[in-house]
Every structure is written in C-alpha cells, then in structure tokens.
Design goal:
Length: 525
C-alpha cells in the first residue's frame, strides 16, 4: 500500500491495482486548488484502505463512502438528524420494530440503472454476511430475512428488537448495485472486486488514484441527488505532516485540512482567507492496551500504567480538549460525571506494579501511532516518560494507517499500546460502547482484542432498551466495569479542528464523522 504509481480508472471503478504499466502523471496541488470553480482539495494524513462499503472503516473510508455511495438515510445538522437519501420517506410502527422505506424514483447507480428495493435487500444481506466494516451497527438487530422488498420501490425492515438509534445508524450502511457485484463475485462475495472498484449511486465516482498521494473523485454524470453545489470533483490528498496541511491552507493549495493540531489552529487564527472550525463533538481519544497477549494481558499492569500516566501532559498536548471521565464522552446519554477514574498517582501505580510478575519492570512495550500525526506522536512521548517511572521502556513505531489496521487482526500482531480516536457516527451512546468494547469488534481497530462476556451483556442490554432511564442505569454499570478492567488509558475529548478556505461555500458542521467531509452540498466561489 505504499506504491506511488498512478492508475487509470473507469467510470465505475479502478482497474486492477497491480500490473498496470501506465505512466505516472503528477497533478500539482495548485492546479487542483485553482481549478475553475470545481475541484475541492481536502488535505488528510490517512489513506483510503479500500473501496468496499461493507468492509472498509476509518474516517478516510467514511469520506469515500459518503461521496461515492448512498445510504437509505443521511445525517446532517447540529444536533444531527436523519435526512432523506435513497429513501425519500419512511414509516415506523409504534414499538419501533418495523420500518418501511419508499425509495426516491430518481435514484440511479453510476451504471445508469435505477436503485431498487432488491439492491437494498442485497446490500444489507451482504454487509451482514461479511460481518466486517460497519455491520456491527446493525448486528443482532437486522437479520437478512428481516429485510424484504415489498415492491421495486419499497423496502421493509422487521427488527429483532426495538432499537432507538436505528435511523441514526442507517447513514453508515451503504447500498451497492446488486448486478455489478454479482457479476464479479469471485470466491469472496465480491470483496476482491470492490477493493478497487465501485458499484455505487453517490454523487461522485473514482476518477484517479495514486496510493499514498491522492484520490480524485469526479462528479458522476448520473448524479441525481438534490441540493448539490458546483463541484466538478474532490481530491483527497495525502499529506502526512499536519504542519504541511496548515501551510497548504495558508497558501490556498488546499481548501480543507482535517488533521490539524491546536498549535496549527492557533497559527491560523488571523490568516487571511482562512475559516477555522473548532467544535465539540462525541470524539474520544484513548490508548488501547493489549488485554489478550503480552505483558498488558495482566490487569494489574494495566492499572499500574493507568495510574502512572501523566494526564495533565496529555491534556496540555491536546489543546482544545477536556480529560475523559471514563470511556464515554461527556454529555452523552448515561455518562457519569462522578465516575471514579484513574488519575496520576505514582504510589498507586507502584502498588499495582508490585502485584505483577515483573514488579521491578525491566521490559519494553511497543506503541504504534499514525505516521505524521503530530498529536499522536506527542502522546506517545508522554507515555514514554510516564512508563519510565515504572522502569518500563516504550518502543514507539510510526506507521501508515492501513498497516495499523492490519495489525489489529489478532492479539499476536496487535501492539501493547494503540492510540485510537473514536468519533461517533451516530449521536447515541451505543455507538461508542458497541464499537469500542463489544467483543464482536475484535480484529478491528476500534476494539482489536478486548473481550469480556459481562461487558458484552451490558452493551447488548442497553442497545435494545428503549426506556431512557433504564438505559442510563445499564450504562452506569458498563462504565464502572470498564474502569475496573482498565482496557484503555482514558485520554481526552478533543474538539474537532478543521480549517478551510473562505472560498468553500455551503459548509455546515455536523458533530458526527465531521472529518469525513460530505462534498456534495459544497461549492467553490
């Protein structure tokens, strides 16, 4: 995934990403940034891992899917509210177990074929079969047999249990064209094909890719969505260093930067032609520990590390942020602001260290972080200094995001410490709880290894409970259980920090996946 070769793409997707001997063509940043009215440049430090809407995760993948594919329902506004997408309207029964969606008759795939109820049924079935990507959001709530086509334009969902956030999760289950995927099934349900090809109906499609450099999306000729801006295309440009992202914004070489530090934002405060977006959202930063393999499988060591951590330094390095009080973001349903959590206490750290098999330390842990992401590098250095107090070393390994995701596949490849930003895709506690701590997520970056049956049971009870007071009670038990298990170092709640040129028109902040920019409503003027 480190190749810089360029590839020619068809309208519906990439040609194979290997063995294509096309000449590399460099598209200078200024050409994109100054293109006549049309090409938005977004500077990001994260590659897009693959193009399959039912397997890819991470904010770069979310950006790609939001722009190339369509869900039944989109989300926008602050607070976030469900909005029509492929579905122009819907109905729900009294107990919240049955939803009926009417599809927009204008909806078309990039092939020119209409989007039908059968495509929706197929897409949800495929997502559940693969059990990857965002399927965790609907697992045990939606079943393949519970999604049916009433007629070509009507889809019915019969849920296994009431699920209050259902409309909030639908924006992250994307619809593929059944005929295209079935023509390219191979032996893996089309996974190989959709790694590098698309089968969507979104307002943009892939035009050109240089892995590790840029992803160019062009406005789809069949774009049918209402409310669009004047963009001819979008470039997701890989810029590893946040300082370089900032300079590109200052110079007008990029229109939006999504990975900036607090220092970068301070530097841009009076920059001409620059708009800063600094907004609270449900975004946690924690450092996950390997609870299944290696030294951190010992809960006493995890507690020792949690007490040895310099939380003040983590907060200072974060800038626009607050310290987390447990695993949930402040203000979300069920969060306990009085929860007793770990704070720096070297005496307690040594007390728990004495209970381990290596009370004197003398070993080295491994911590990965995203290459070029300055904030994570600083936190890794803080952990290096914190662990020295316990005579523990720390090997700091910067890596590209796809390689970090690959390391999450098993406890044996997962490092001892792994920093994670968890941004809520939907504004409900279930998002953070299920993604970050349910064992069904094992092997994914959100929760690579933590596996506890009691925690699973609490999460499952809360996500199917529609009484808010009962949900609060369950989430209280959930938070106390996680503090006791100490699978993470609970870090900070950062405010989202975006910078953009004032030429960008039509932008509205939404506090879910706000770094996965939805480009269709935007214009350059």
């Amino acid at each position: 995934m480190n190749s810089s070769s360029s590839f020619s793409l068809s309208r519906r997707g990439l040609l194979a990403m290997a063995g294509i001997g096309l000449a590399s063509t460099v598209f200078p940043r200024k050409i994109f940034a100054q293109a006549g009215g049309g090409v938005l440049v977004i500077a990001s430090g994260q590659d897009i891992p693959n193009f399959d809407p039912h397997t890819a995760t991470g904010y770069s993948a979310s950006f790609f899917m939001r722009n190339v594919y369509d869900p039944l329902v989109r989300v926008s506004g602050n607070p976030p509210e469900p909005q029509p997408a492929l579905a122009e309207s819907w109905e729900v029964n009294e107990d919240g177990t049955e939803f009926i969606f009417k599809l927009n008759p204008a909806a078309k795939f990039h092939s020119g074929n209409p989007v039908t109820a059968e495509d929706v049924v197929y897409s949800f079935g495929r997502a559940l079969r693969l059990a990857k990507g965002n399927s965790w959001m609907i697992r045990d709530i939606v079943t393949p047999e519970g999604v049916t086509a009433i007629d070509p334009a009507t889809v019915k969902f019969s849920l296994t249990a009431p699920y209050a956030p259902f409309l909030q999760v639908l924006p992250w289950i994307f619809v593929v064209e059944k005929a295209v995927v079935e023509e390219n099934l191979g032996s893996d349900d089309g996974e190989t094909y959709l790694m590098t090809n698309t089968a969507g109906s979104g307002p943009f499609d892939v035009a050109r890719v240089e892995i590790g450099t840029l992803y160019h999306l062009a406005r789809a000729p069949e774009a049918w969505q209402a409310g669009g801006g004047n963009l001819d295309g979008v470039v997701w440009q890989i810029v590893r260093e946040t300082a370089t992202q900032r300079l590109m914004i200052e110079r007008g070489e990029a229109h939006i930067a999504v990975d900036l530090t607090s220092e970068d934002m301070d530097s841009l405060e009076d920059a001409p032609g620059v708009v800063r977006v600094i907004e609270p959202e449900y975004r946690t930063f924690s450092i996950k520990m390997n609870t299944e393999h290696g030294p951190c499988a010992d809960v006493n060591l995890r507690k020792a590390i949690s007490y040895a951590t310099n939380y003040d330094a983590i907060l200072d390095a974060a800038g626009y942020a607050d310290l987390m009080i447990g695993p949930l973001p402040h203000g979300i349903l069920g969060h306990d602001p009085e929860l007793e959590v770990y704070r720096t206490d070297l005496d307690k750290a040594k007390e728990y260290m004495a209970k381990t098999e290596t009370p004197e330390g003398g070993f080295t842990l491994k911590m990965m972080h995203v290459s070029g992401l300055e904030q994570q590098r600083r936190w890794a250095l803080i952990m290096l200094d914190s662990l020295k107090q316990l005579n523990i070393g720390l090997e700091i390994v910067p890596m590209n995001w796809p390689d970090m995701v690959a390391a999450c596949r098993s406890p044996e490849t997962f490092p001892d410490m792994f920093p994670v930003y968890q941004t809520a895709n939907y504004g409900d506690t279930d998002n953070i709880a299920y993604a970050a701590y349910h064992s069904s997520r094992n092997g994914n970056w959100q929760n690579a290894v933590y596996n506890d049956p009691d925690t699973d049971a609490l999460i499952e009870a809360a996500r199917t409970e529609i009484d808010p007071e009962k949900r609060v009670e369950i989430y209280g038990k959930f938070q106390r259980k996680l503090v006791e298990d100490a699978p993470d170092i609970f870090g900070v709640l950062e405010r989202r920090k975006l910078a953009m040129r004032d030429a960008v028109k039509g932008y509205q902040f939404t506090p879910v996946a706000s770094n996965a920019i939805e480009a269709w409503p935007l214009s350059l003027g």
